[in-house]
Amino acid sequence: MALDESAILYLTYACKYLRAKKSYKKFREGNSMKITGAELFVKALKEEKVDTLFAYPGGQAIDLFDALYGEKEMNIILPRHEQGLVHAADGYARSTGKVGVCLVTSGPGAANLVTGIATANYDSVPLVCFTGQVPTKLIGKDAFQEVNIADITKSISKYAVTVQKREDLAGAIKKAFFMAKTGKPGVAVVDLPKDIQQEYGSDAYPSDMESGRREPEIFVDSRQVEQAVNLLCKAKRPVFLVGGGVLISHAEREMQMLAEKTGVPVITTIMGKGAIPAVHDLYVGNIGIHGSYAANMAVSRCDVLFAIGTRFNDRITGKTEQFAPDAAIVHVDIEPASISKTVAADLAIVADAKAAIRTFTEAVQPLAVAAWVRQIKEWQRRYPITMKGDGITPEKIMRGINQVFDEAIIATDVGQNQLWATQFLDLHERKKLMTSGGLGTMGYGFPAAIGAKIGNPETDVVVISGDGGMQMNIQEMATAIVYELPITICILNNGYLGNVRQWQELFFDRRYACTCMRYRKSCAADCNTPTKSCPPYTPDFVKLAQSYGAKGIRVTDENEILTALETAKRTKTVPTVIEFLIDREVNVMPIVPAGNALCDMLF
C-alpha cells in the first residue's frame, strides 16, 4: 500500500521524536539522573519541606519559575511588590515557626528585598531569599539588571552567596536553610546566575549540612546555673527582663512557670511582650523609652536583673551608665556576640532561652520577694498607662481589639500605632504580636499580616497601622483580595507622621517639618497648628479599599468602635479596612527623652 506525502512526513517526525526520547532517556540514565539547576532548586525546596513560596518573576529567574510551573506541592504566592513579598515571607515565618522562603529576579527585584532582609535579620526571623542573577560570564560587567546582591546583603544577613558552579548549588541551598534556622535564626541569601539555573548536573541533595554535621545539641552549663540561682536566692529586688528570644524559642509556658515558681516579677521588651499573659499578676509592663513607670522604675531599683533573650538595644536601656545601676546582671542569650555588647553582664550564659528557662525552673525555689512585688504594684497603681479624654482614643481602639479578638495574630506597623499597641494590647499565648522591632520598618505591618494569614488561615489576623505606614505597601491590598484573605486592617489616622511630629512638638518647638500628611502646595510652609480648615486627607481610605474590592468602614465616634471590629471579624472572604479618625496631636506617653535614664520620664 502506497503512503501519501503527509503520512510519510508524519512517520518521519514520529521516528525522530522516538529517537530523541530514547537518546534523552539514555543521557539521563548514563549520567546519574542529571537535571537542570532550576529543577534541583525545586527539588531542594521540597526536601526542605517548603509549602509556601513568595515569588515575583523576572528575566533572570524565568527558568526557576518555569521549573515551578504547575507545581502542586507548594503554594506559590504572587505579591505586588518585592518589598511586600519579603515582609509577607517574614510574617509567615514569625507566625508559623517555619522558614520563610522568597524568590525574585535580579537587579531591582533583588535590591527591593534589602529592607525586608534587614528587618527580618534584626529580629532573628528565619528567612531564605533566592535571587536570579545574570550569567556568570557577565557578572562584574555592568550587565542589564545586574547587582551584587550577595555583597550588598552580607552585613544584614547570616549568609549570602552567589553560586558560581553548578556542582556547588545543592550545598549552597542546604547551607542557607541550615544557617537560617540554626542557633540564632536569621536571613540567608542565595544568588542564582542564569547559566547555573540552566546547566545540567547531579540531582543529589544532601540530607545534612556536611558529612555528619547536624544542628548542635542545646545544653546549659550546670555551674553557671548554680551561680545564677545563687544570685536570685540572695536577691531582695529581682526582676526578669524578657526579650524576643523567649518567643522565638516558643518558651512562653516555661517562662510563666519560672515566674510563678519564684514569685519574681516579669518585665518585657516590646519584642518580648506576650511571653507571659499581659493580665498575669506578675507582669509589670514594657521597659524602655515608652515603657511603663513601674517597669522602668523596677529595673532602675532592682538588685538582680535576670535578662533572657534580649540584646539590650538603646530603646530599652536609656542612658546605659544609669541602667540598673545597683543590679547584678545575668544575661542569657543564644548569640554570644549579644552578651555584654551594650550592657556589661556579671554572669553570661550562652544558651537557647527555652533550655535555659527549663533548667532554672528545676533548680530554683520560691523566693521571699513579697515586699518588692507590693512596691511595684504601688507604682502601677499610682502611675498607670492610660489615655484620658472623650472621643476615639488609641487606648479605646486597643481595648476594643482585646474584647473582639480573644485569639489572633496582630501585626503592627511602626510609629505611634506600634507603641500604643504594645502598651494596651492584652497579649498571651493565643494572641500574638508581630512587629518590626530592631529596624523599625514602616510599611511592614500589612504585608506581614498577609503572610501570617496565608500561614494560619483559620486564625484571625489584625493589622494596626498609622496612615503613613499604610501607604507604604498599600498595593498589597490586591494580594489580599486575590487570595481571599479576610484580614482586619485598623488604620489610626491622625493626618501626621505621628511619632516624628510628637518629637517635633516636645523637643523641636513644634516645628512640624514634613510630617503633615494633609499638606498641599498652597499651605503655609511654617504651619504647626491643625484646624478644621485643613485640606482633606489623601487618599480616602474607605474609597480606596472599595476600589480594590475590600470592605471600607470609617469610625468617627467611640460608640462605633466595637461594631466596626465585629463587622470585620464576621467578614470571611475579603479584607476590611477600618479607618479610625483620632485626635491629630495625640501623643504616646510616658516618654524618656533621648540621653536620659529610664527613671527620668515625661508624663
Overview of the molecule:
The protein is α/β, with parallel strands linked by helices. 38% of the residues lie in helices and 15% in strands. α24 links the parallel β19 and β20. It starts with a helix and ends in a 22-residue tail after the last strand.
Quick structural gist:
The chain is α/β, with parallel strands linked by helices.
Give the integer mean of the pLDDT values.
Answer: 93
Shape: globular
Number of strands: 20
User: How would you characterize the largest beta sheet?
Assistant: 6 strands, parallel
* End-to-end Cα distance: 103 Å
Instruction: Please identify the structural class as seen in this structure.
Output: alpha/beta
Key phrases:
603 residues, alpha/beta, 6-stranded parallel beta sheet, 38% helix, globular
Chain-wise SSE layout:
Elements: H1 5-30, E1 35-36, H2 37-47, E2 52-55, H3 62-68, E3 75-77, H4 82-96, E4 100-104, H5 108-111, H6 114-122, E5 127-133, H7 149-153, E6 159-162, H8 169-181, E7 187-193, H9 194-198, E8 200-201, H10 222-234, E9 238-242, H11 244-248, H12 252-262, E10 266-268, E11 283-286, H13 293-301, E12 304-308, H14 314-317, E13 328-333, E14 347-350, H15 353-363, H16 370-382, H17 394-404, E15 408-412, H18 416-424, E16 431-434, H19 445-455, E17 461-466, H20 467-470, H21 477-482, E18 488-493, H22 498-507, H23 541-548, E19 551-555, H24 561-570, E20 576-581
Parallel strand pairs: 2-3, 2-4, 4-5, 5-7, 6-7, 9-10, 9-12, 10-11, 12-13, 13-14, 15-16, 15-17, 17-18, 18-20, 19-20
Antiparallel strand pairs: 1-8
Helix pairs in contact: 2-3, 2-8, 4-6, 4-19, 10-15, 12-15, 13-16, 17-18, 17-24
